[in-house]
Amino acid sequence: CHQCYVEQLVFNELLCQWVPFVFSDASMYAHYLFNAFDTAQNGSVKFEDFVMALSILLRGTVHEKLRWTFNLYDINKDGYINKEEMMDIVKAIYDMMGKYTYPVLKEDAPRQHVEVFFQKMDKNKDGVVTLDEFIESCQE
């Protein structure tokens, strides 16, 4: 039934209400988070998928949690995280944190964050991070 689904607009509004930062914009992060929950990639999240994801995030093994997190960062679902995808997610996280954090974030902080991420995770230096590289690096 239609009531068993959450549409993206509703999801975004709910997440924006939960974000505790006064001056933040959680809309882009909500978009990426919704896409991670939307396993069918059809613009809506079934209740079962939502509960399954929460179960993984709360009670899953480390490997299951890392696989789910990798899926969040792999925006185009091609099995790799590239720098553009990582930059989009990191910018969304920084936007959610707000512009009035202390200490004040520098303008190039997202780019620096992505560079550090790739230095640590892109083991074979081919410009993308695979699931295996992601899991291996996180477990180190």
Describe the model.
It is a single chain. With 140 residues, this protein is mainly α. The chain has one domain (5-139): EF-hand (Recoverin, domain 1), CATH 1.10.238.10. It is 60% helix and 9% strand. It is built from seven helices and four strands; from the N terminus they run E-H-H-E-H-H-E-H-H-E-H. It has helices at 8-18, 27-37, 47-59, 62-73, 83-97, 109-121, 131-139; strands at residues 5-7, 44-46, 80-82, 128-130. The strands form two sheets. Strands 1-2 form a two-stranded antiparallel ribbon. The longest helix is centred in the middle third of the chain and has 15 residues, at 83-97. The protein is globular. The mean pLDDT is 81. Residues 25-60, 61-96, 109-140 form the EF-hand domain. Keywords: Calcium, Metal-binding, Repeat. One of its GO terms (molecular function) is calcium ion binding.
